[in-house]
Design a protein that fits this description.
With 70 residues, the chain is mostly helical. The protein contains three helices and two strands, in the order H-E-H-H-E.
Amino acid sequence: MWPAGRGQDHLARELAHARRAVRLCPDDWLDGLDIDLWDGPARGRVDLLLWRLGRELLEIGTSVILESGF
C-alpha cells in the first residue's frame, strides 16, 4: 500500500502505460475544468461520471485505471 500523497499518481501512470489502459483521475478532470479540488459536490459528480465512463470502456474491452485516492 502506498502512503497518501506519495506516488499513487506516478504508479497509476506507470500501470496505465504498461497495460495500455485509460487512466481516469478525478483530480485531473477537476483541475482541467478549473474546479476547486476540495469542492465535495463537484467531486461527487465527476466521480460518478468517471465510474460510468470506466464501465463503458470496460464493456468494449479497454483496460481502465481508476485513480481515485483509495
